[in-house]
Amino acid sequence: MLQIVFPSNENLSYISKVNATFQNSRYLIVLDITGQNITGVDMIENPNYYSKDKLLQTCLDKKFKVLIIPENDNLNIKEFKEKGINIYKAENKKKKVLNIFSDYVQDKLIKV
């Protein structure tokens, strides 16, 4: 099972709109993925709200392996990659988590 994490200010499961940054998002939408299917959804309050420095530790603690970042998020990508966390960029045009997940499955996202 793989977990994919999206930033959002909405608590609407996979129909939440993706937020512009992890730092300013109130929630982390976590999709549990088996193959190309969503097998679970978890919405947790972002323990890193307004602090990009704590996101890496949260990912390591919860064993998140994939982050979907909006185009303008300014995370230290090198640091995440060194810890085995894959990062994909998605266009931030207020797309919903489910739409971006569909892009991920179809290899339309850019791996950074």
TrEMBL record:
Protein name, entry field: Dinitrogenase iron-molybdenum cofactor biosynthesis domain-containing protein
Source organism per UniProt: Halarcobacter mediterraneus
